[in-house]
Structures are given as structure tokens and as C-alpha cells.
Amino acid sequence: MKPKIFITPWIDLSNTEVQKCIDAGANSGRIHTGKANAEKIIDLIKFYDSIDFKFYLDLRGNKASVDFIDSGNEFADAKIGDSLWIYENTKYYNLKSADIKLRFNYFPASLSNMIDQKSDFALDDGNILLTVINKEFDESECLTGLLCKVTRANSKKIWIGDGITSSNYFIHSNNKSVLTKIDIKILESIPQNIRDKVKYAAVSFCENQDQISDCVKTLQNLGYNSAQVVPKIETAQGVKNIDEICLKLHKLYKGSAEVQIGRSDLSLDSKRLSPPVNADDLTDKAIKTCRENHVKISILALILQSVRKRHKLNQKSNNWKPSLSEYNYIKHLCKCGVYQIGLTNDMYIDRPELMINALSNTINMIG
Question: Do 58 and 73 belong to one domain?
Fold first, then answer.
């Protein structure tokens, strides 16, 4: 069976534009709660439900990420050389003068012990690279802020919801519960009368079966009685525990059990291991285990980046062919029998339906 197409529409797309994406061949999509506000999330839930389109309420999970920028701006422009003040507690907001000020939803407790001034940090999947200049602590010696300098700015914009990563330190997954206070706040912001419309809750950075049990309990306590937990495996630890995750899911959901793999974050995490591991080997292991346990697996793969780059440079280009390496990877996923291939920021172009059509044509060509 050919893989289905799983999409991540950008937050500023209208429902009409999203419908074009669906008409182009999308079979399901995610509501990226890390990027969208409550009003947009609610609107999308109602829209997808009205057209009977499968969607996942994608919770950001246990990852430190931006939840406030400067004085409430939607995004910040980043330039090489800019100073950037990252903080957790609003109490410390005015203590630093910087070009950009970002508040994060939380700082992992061990972060202050693991970071030296040579550590690198990245925002927006590595497009914006930061160097730590200084750290500040409160009276209890808890980390309260990081003063950084922008050393690379490919994307130039920092958005609310952007997560922070490091090539040499595993920042997220410090809490016992995979759901953060931000996730709970998002879930609580959705009106009670539409919570049953959420059939799938994708939970980022899930690493073990206990976190799945915790998610199920939390969703039920909040009135999401129809929501199936779909763990997103985005770390080497999650792949290590993929057997127990599959067994837990099959026990809960039988043949409808699903897993998603976030290949971008998994690639970052695989490089931090000692020695580093090939992320595609980890992905293949997860696919194999899921298939053996009759668990559907979706791969969010960043598979058409060369096409996106081409059309960013020339919007009039009619060349929608993936690179040879991209084509071969799509072919590999088809051969492995994955349930869905996901487009994420591959489709963040002026006419995203054309990117979806390109992936659909490629899958059909592979046969």
C-alpha cells in the first residue's frame, strides 16, 4: 500500500488555502500548537471536523521553547551579531539590555550544570545559531537567563513556539511528565463542547510507556475522551524504548495504534550521542519494530528541502522534482511500508498545494 501524505499547514493559511492542500492529495494534517494561538487552534478543529478530515492536535511536549517575545510581538527579526537574552522568569525580564528578549516556557533543571560558555544553541531547527556569552542565576542558584549572540541567521525570524536545541547537549526531556504546563494550558483553552472532536493527540518527545499512560490520564481528566495518544519519537532514547511503546499502544488501541517519527529532532539527537549514530538507522529500527507490532508509523522527514529552496529563489520555477537523494529516501520509505510521509516546513512556500502535489506525484511514480 502506498504511503499517505501528512501535512503541516503554516499558521497563517486560510481555510480555503488549507482546502487546496487537501485537494492536492493530503490525507491528514497536524495542528501545530507550538505555532498557533488558541483562536486559530479552535478554528482549525472546527474546520477539519466539518469536512471529516483526519487531524492530529500536535502538543509541543517536553521541550524548552519560546512562549513570549519582547513586548508581545509575534516574531523577532534576528541578525548575525544581535545580542539575545533568554529567560524563564518574568521577574528577570528588565535586568538585561539586549536586541532580542525571549521568554521560555521552562529551563531544564540540569541545564546550568551542563552548559559552558562554548556551548552552541540553535533555534528553528538549527537555522538560527547562538553562542552563550553569559549565564545568570537566582539566589537559589537556579538558572534564570542566558545572554547569547546570534552567530548564524538563515531563517532570520524567531517565532513563538520555536524550540531550543544544542548539538552537544540534550536539552529537553527532563520532566517526568511529557506534557508541560504550556500543553495543559492549550488543552484547557479549547472549549469543552469541541474537545470530543479531537480524535488524535500527537505528543512530542515521548520516550517511554509511562509517559503514554500519563498522557492518557491527563487527556481523560480534561474531557478529551475520544483522543487517541500518538507518541512522537524524536530522541534516541525514544527509539531505544520503541518495543515497550509499541506494546503499550497496541494494548490501548489494537490495530489503530500509531507512532510518529520526527526525523529532524532525531537527527540532532543522534549527533549528540557518543559515538554519534546515523539517524536514518534509528528511523529504520523504529519502522521495523512498529511494523512487527502492527503499529502504523508516520515519518515527518523534511524530504523536499531542495524543492523548497529552489522555489524560494525563483517562485516562477516549474521544476518540482526532488533531488536524487530525496527521491531515493522517499522510495526507501515506500519500500519500508510506512503509513504516512509527512511534509513540515517543506510546504512553507507561497503555494503549498504544489509541494503536496509534487510529493503525491513522486509516490505514484515509485508505485
Answer: no
Are 321 and 345 within one domain? yes
Signed CA dihedral, 237, 242, 248, 252: sign only: positive
Q: Rounded distance, CA 332 to CA 63, Å?
A: 30
Length of the chain: 367
Single out the residue in 165, 183, 198 at which a domain terminates: 165
Do 285 and 344 lie in a common domain?
yes
Angle ∠(153,155,158) on CA atoms, nearest 5: 85
In one-letter notation, the amino acid at residue 182 is I
Please, what is the angle between helix 263-272 and helix 279-292, to 10°?
Answer: 120
**In terms of pTM, does the model score above 0.90?**
no
| Residue spans of alpha helices (H) in the chain | 15-23, 38-50, 111-114, 181-189, 209-221, 236-240, 242-253, 263-272, 279-292, 305-313, 324-336, 352-366
Task: For residue 220, give its domain range.
Answer: 4-64+173-366
pLDDT at 48 over 90: yes
- Give residue-wise pLDDT tens across range 142-160: 788 888 899 988 878 898 8
d(CA 356, CA 19): 12
Q: Which residues contact 83 (CB under 8 A, 6 or more apart)?
A: 97, 98, 99, 100, 133, 147, 148, 149, 150
CATH code for position 98: 2.40.33.10
* CB distance 98 to 171 below 8 Å: no
Q: How many domains, the chain?
A: 2
| Confidence at 172, pLDDT banded by 50, 70, 90 | low
Residue 296 to residue 246: CA distance in whole angstroms: 10
Per-residue pLDDT at 73: 80
Tell me: do 226 and 258 sit in the same domain: yes
266-318 per-position pLDDT tens digit = 887 887 777 888 889 999 999 999 999 999 999 998 899 999 999 888 888 88
- 157 versus 53: the higher-pLDDT residue is 53
